[in-house]
Amino acid sequence: MIKKIIIFLLLFITLLLGINTVSFTKIVTIGVGDSHIIVVDSKDNIYGWGLNRHSQLISSENKEIVIPKKIIELSGVISASGGYVHTTILKKDGTVWSWGTNSDGQLGSGNRLDYNFPVRVKKLENIISISSSGYNNMALKKDGTVWCWGANDWVQLGSYEFEGHTAKKIDGLSNIVDISCGGFFSLALDKNGKIYAWGNNRDICLGVDSKDEVVERPLQIKDVQNVVDIGSSPYGILALMNDGSVWRWGNTLEKPAKIEGLKNIISIDIAMAQSIFLKNDGTVYTMGTNDYGQLGSNDNIDHKVPIQVKGLKNIIDVKTGDGFCVALEKNGTIWTWGNNNYGQLGNGTRVNTCIPQKVDIKSISNK
């Protein structure tokens, strides 16, 4: 009899606790916006934290979320990306969905209405990759074509005449295998390892054979070949070569230059003035501006050459936003460091940290 009572009490407590929490499952996808983070677990739960003044985390509270919060359950999400005031996700069925502010048509909904729930991006199907930055988005279709939508003040959409509230196919591109949205410009990588760029060529120095301030159509960046991955931000461009080396250019650096001290790199990302690199042994390296501690070096000293982020191992993905970084460990653990002005580190505070810290996502409020 006593044994039955104990079992009953344990079941009751478990049920009671389950009312306000969601059980932990392995995180499989991470994505960042300018000042917010989106992650997806193996049971299709989407969590978010950080800046939410424009409903980029779906919540209608329109205030910062400083600890991870389940924001929606959406089946089949395979990647997430974000801009300043919106979030975009890709589902395994090839459809793209978005939410947040829609001032420049960055939600791709066919109008300029804001949404605090997912809306499907029109005209898109069979999509295999997405990229977002600022008020812009890119999508790569299974057939190797590229589609863009959102702000078009620097002809990021490939035409002055196009209004960006619906997705538009970029002419002159084929056999594309990767894309990167730089906010004020766009990049595409083809199957032969060649990069094409268009948009703002005044402030970023795209590296194309043109002195025009605005490049209106995709032009090849001829100084780099055999590229396997690309990354971009309003402050620069990165290219990962098939030999594991990384090259950079943009801003004041007009021509691509090899970053010394990096080898066996398998993934790259850049945002604002810092870059992050993932090595094939699961270790992480950073370089650039360090005013928020975003390089993870336990100081605020800028580093012009790559440094290893101590304490990280078995990492399988890395991302960086406005002054902060996030890393996903093989076991599903999330690490964050750097700028925490809007709670984007997910540690319950707004205090910056210059070393990686675990994000507690094992028991999350569902309210």
Overview of the structural elements:
With 367 residues, this protein is mostly beta strands. The chain has 1 helix and 30 strands. The longest helix is centred in the N-terminal third of the chain and has 17 residues, at 2-18. The protein is globular. The two termini are 37 Å apart. The model is unreliable at 3-23 (pLDDT under 50).
Helix-strand layout with pairing:
Elements: H1 2-18, E1 21-22, E2 27-32, E3 36-41, E4 45-50, E5 65-73, E6 77-82, E7 86-91, E8 96-100, E9 115-120, E10 127-133, E11 136-141, E12 146-150, E13 168-169, E14 176-181, E15 185-190, E16 195-200, E17 214-221, E18 227-233, E19 236-241, E20 246-250, E21 253-258, E22 265-271, E23 274-279, E24 284-288, E25 303-308, E26 315-320, E27 324-329, E28 334-338, E29 353-358, E30 364-365
Largest sheet data: 4 strands, antiparallel
Number of strands: 30
Low-confidence stretches: 3-23
Provide the residue-averaged pLDDT.
91
By secondary-structure content and strand pairing, the structural class works out as mainly beta
Quaternary assembly:
single chain
Helical content class: under 10%
What coarse outline follows from CA principal-axis ratios? globular
Order of strands across the main sheet? 2-3-4-5
Specify the number of helices. 1
What's the end-to-end separation, in Å? 37 Å
Strand content: over 45%
Supply Rg. 21 Å
